[in-house]
Amino acid sequence: MTALDTDFVRAQFPAFAEPSLAGLAFFENAGGSYACAPVIDRLTRFYRQRKVQPYAPYAPSTLGGAEMDEARARMAAMLGVATEEVSFGPSTTANTYVLAQAFLRGLEPGAAIVVTNQDHEANSGPWRRLAEEGVEVREWQIDPETGHLDPAALAPLLADGRVRLVCFPHCSNVVAEINPVARIVAMAHEAGAFACVDGVSYAPHGVPDVGALGADIYLFSAYKVYGPHQGIMVIRREVGFKLPNQGHYFNGDALYKRFTPAGPDHAQIAACAGIADYFDALHAHHFAPEPDAARRGAAVHDLIRAHEAALLQPLLDHLAARNDLRLIGPRDATRRAPTVAVALDRPAEPVAAALAEHGIGCGAGDFYAVRPLTAMGVDLGRGVLRLSFVHYTTAEEVSRVIRALDAVL
């Protein structure tokens, strides 16, 4: 198997050449990753050369519109969906809220939706608020010991045929277990429901082939996938045109405009093409040429996942061997993302501060994952310590974290 060239990877991120960041081992990537050079270059160029209203027939305007179109087309190709099925919005939270309002008006009387208590609140809260409008909201609950979301527990919630939407995460931002998306989507479809997948915590670890997964809606945040602060959402045509238009009435025929009620951020949308630039550069460096964007994305996805799992397993083993903390989520690195939350025998925030003195950048708190932490009996007053990394992390940095934890704990 091809091994990830971390020297090449880190050369694509200006942060690793930034003197002010020297010596920092960055382990709060679940909160937002470093931006890659192609994104920064495209964003800078747009602000310098294209910062006008796009799509008019003069050069900078035409070029600006073309860059926005390029971003949508290339992201769609990588995600395995049609270009019109990719929408941009200010954040995943905002995108989810708009979708929830559309479903509120599109659901027939007596319809129900399913949410989980494994979610980050961004994907759960907007859907749960529909209960205030009379929509029945059913909760698919995790195992309180492990945080596992068992598909078998979903079946009874779907049994009466009234569920029209199942909302769940690809993986949680604290449990990190990778859920069997294709299987869950198939269960939803068999019951006559659409499936909405929160991919925020998964996409940084390999952009998925949404077309292959079968999800009707898939949402993630570009700023966690080495890009600008935008929410990216895939809305498949079938569900997009069944829901009422949430944008300007005269844009109702354009699928990618139906769920963007405010004006789009032109520069940041254009910069998202830099995400595709970066993943294509990774593919070109590691593999033979491949004309199909989805296949290129799949190869890079597997390359990243293998690297991350190899780095993650020693950290999981070390944490699992300690008796002064509770490791949340699976102990097998192949079953989870490298987002590692631990409940300590003391408040987590001072531990994060102490780790910072050792050159480790990580976070502490609840990370908007109040529901899963509460379900698992975690003391929210103490919170959890979270160590999250991505593929630009090195084995040496993981070893530094382990040594620093030993010193601090």
UniProtKB/TrEMBL annotation:
Keywords: Aminotransferase, Pyridoxal phosphate, Transferase. One of its GO terms (molecular function) is transaminase activity. InterPro entries: Aminotrans_V_dom, PyrdxlP-dep_Trfase, PyrdxlP-dep_Trfase_major, PyrdxlP-dep_Trfase_small. Signal peptide: none annotated. Residues 26-242, 304-401 form the Aminotransferase class V domain. This is Aminotransferase, class V. The lineage of its organism: Bacteria, Pseudomonadati, Pseudomonadota, Alphaproteobacteria, Rhodobacterales.
